[in-house]
Write a structure and sequence with these properties.
252 residues; Alpha/beta knot; Trp Operon Repressor, Chain A; 38% helix; elongated; alpha/beta
């Protein structure tokens, strides 16, 4: 798959694309990332990419023309027009389901907005999807683009050291969309605290049940909405429901 990132600050992506385990996805081309700066195609001596908003108000707005020309450059390289994604507050919330959809796609063109935003005429003419990573505002779309790329890269074959690792991540369908359980490693005792005995027992059925119970405990405490979703989808077992009922009695 190929992702073209339209950004005024391509230098921000250099360490991201060459550091950490997900670099395997980028170096191998499994997730092929190309960076494009609208200033490279902007007109005038100053290669201006922004201007004041009509109607007044603070800040600047990214101009439609340089972005439009950048899409032309990308289309010429790709040989076709790809889907265009803009990171914005009105976008679809980014979750595991959305990430999985993009991980199974051919990629997209990611628009990293800056300043007060992007000229609405460009959005109306070219943007196919908008994505939000949360109810807060950042200085630009570069961090959201990295978030999406990182999440997509983790789901590609041969990127993680253990191919099954991402199946045990929080929100993954393999966990019925629940939060992951706590994890422990050496030493067996640290700062006066030990490891739950069941994890040292070697009894895989008991370990599996403990992990499921802990997933339920954490999820009902911190993300009860995920419990409701799993219940509505018929993913909770009789044992799951019994544990949740006991938790409700204890906390009720």
């Amino acid at each position: 798959m190929r992702f073209d990132v339209v950004t005024l600050f391509p230098e921000l992506f250099a360490p991201f694309l060459t550091t950490g385990i997900t670099r395997r996805a980028y170096s191998s081309g499994a997730v092929d990332v190309h960076l494009f700066n609208p200033r490279d195609v902007a007109s005038g001596n100053y290669r201006r990419v922004d201007d004041r908003p009509f109607g007044g108000g603070p800040g600047m707005v990214m101009m439609a023309e340089p972005l439009d020309k950048t899409l032309d450059v990308i289309a010429a390289e790709r040989g076709h027009r790809a889907k265009v994604v803009l990171f914005s507050p009105i976008g679809q919330p980014l979750n595991h389901t959305v990430v999985q959809e993009w991980a199974n796609s051919d990629g997209a063109i990611l628009i990293c907005g800056r300043y007060e935003g992007v000229d609405q005429r460009f959005i109306d003419a070219h943007v196919d999807a908008q994505i939000s990573i949360g109810d807060f505002v950042l200085s630009g779309g570069e961090l959201p683009a990295m978030v999406l790329l990182d999440a997509v890269a983790r789901l590609q074959p041969d990127v993680l050291s253990d191919a099954d690792s991402h199946h045990f991540d929080s929100f993954n369908p393999a966990l019925d969309g629940l939060l992951d359980c706590p994890h422990y490693t050496r030493p067996e005792e640290w700062a006066g605290q030990g490891v739950p005995e069941v994890l040292l027992s070697g009894h895989h059925i008991n370990i599996s049940r403990w992990r499921r119970d802990e997933q339920l405990r954490l999820t009902v405490r911190y993300r009860p909405d995920l419990i409701a979703a799993a219940r509505a989808a018929g993913l909770l077992t009789v044992k799951d429901e019994a544990l949740l009922a006991s938790i409700a009695i204890m906390t009720g």
